[in-house]
Amino acid sequence: MRASAIRTVAAGIAVTGAVMGVMAGSPGAAVAEGRAAGAADDRPYAATTGVGVHNAYEKTKYPYFADALDSGAAMLELDVWTNVFGGGWRVSHSNPLGNDNNCENAQRPEELRTKARNQRLDGCLADMKAWHDAHPGHRPILVKVELKDGFQGRGGRGPADLDALLRSKLGDALYRPGQLAEGSGSLDEAVQKKGWPTRSELAGKFIVELIPGTVEQNNPADTLWTDREYATHLRDLAAAGRLGDAAAFPAVLGAASGDPRTRYADASIRPWFVLFDGDASVYAGGSVDTKWYADRRYLVVMSDAHNVPPAISATHPTETQARDRVTLLAGRHASVVSSDWYPLPGVLSTVLPRG
């Protein structure tokens, strides 16, 4: 048997064993899976499909954000508010002025699940770093940040401010655009030329995705949404030789046929998008050539996976239903299949071949 085949079999055995541990409810089993699917997995990150949790900061899903990190999920989502009527970067679903979440601002691993919750974004990031310090070989985790009302540069909450916050809280645990683009003129050039790193190389890393928020999208006075603002920021940093300062990846939001980046009138920002995020039902419906994304090694997050016909429960499908849905969307070239399946850690820790 070739060495590559041996590695593939070994990784499969490791993942299978870890998933069985999760299903059995053993402590730390999801973390063990994270190591198996990261440190022992030589597949390119963009060649695999994982499972994400929508609004993982909600206490009704996980008492603490550390529990969400323990879940084995490939993606966890945070909602962030920036308006001038509240202080800092607030994490909440529907309270634009304060914090309502399961983050606790743990400074050390031993503080996880011991402190007061309802912290700002910096508190959530502190929890991530404390958890990372306890599990340095964990699976790559995509952290999807919805900026509910967009950036607020005048209030000290602009793109550069977010970069500084992410760098200061996550440090080397953060995988940055500059690392992906190294040796290339843009993110697009980089992924088409060399692709994303392997899961092994991304073990122990968080990758931050930014999407425009629902309030921002419905605000007629907001003409500069998160996606365009941050992509412009990346372009300008690169032109100044400072792409290493960047800390996040903007996503093109909304499934569409053809190249969705053509919606941006400024063609110079299009090469700074290599991550796409949209409704799973549209991606699965046949109107979008999803292989186009996989061939170019772009990442695709397919949200609301439960709504793909025939619809299944958003929170409590059977394990077979959820696994079948993940398999279906992996076949449609999803990088992440997202829903609210937090009661199913065995499904959340699933990592399948993409395509």
Task: Explain the overall architecture.
With 355 residues, the protein is an alpha/beta fold. The protein has helices at residues 3-24, 29-38, 65-70, 121-134, 159-170, 177-181, 187-193, 214-217, 226-239, 280-284, 291-295, 319-331, 345-348; strands at residues 48-53, 75-81, 90-91, 141-147, 206-212, 249-253, 275-279, 299-303, 336-339, 352-353. It has an eight-stranded parallel barrel. Mean pLDDT is 91; it is low at 1-38.
Structure, briefly:
The chain has 355 residues and is an alpha/beta fold. It is built from 13 helices and 10 strands.
What keywords describe this structure?
disordered N terminus; 355 residues; 14% strand; single chain; 34% helix; alpha/beta
Instruction: Kindly name the structural category.
Output: alpha/beta
Shape: globular
**Tally of individual helices:** 13
Give the oligomeric state. Answer: single chain
Strand content: 5-15%
- The tally of strands reads 10
Low-confidence stretches: 1-38
User: What is the mean predicted local confidence, pLDDT?
Assistant: 91
CA-atom Rg in angstroms? 19 Å
> Approximately how much helix is present in the residues?
25-40%
How far apart are the termini? Answer: 25 Å
- Give the helices and strands as they follow along the chain: HHEHEEHEHHHEHHEEHHEHEHE
Query: What strand order characterises the main sheet?
Result: 1-2-4-5-6-7-8-9
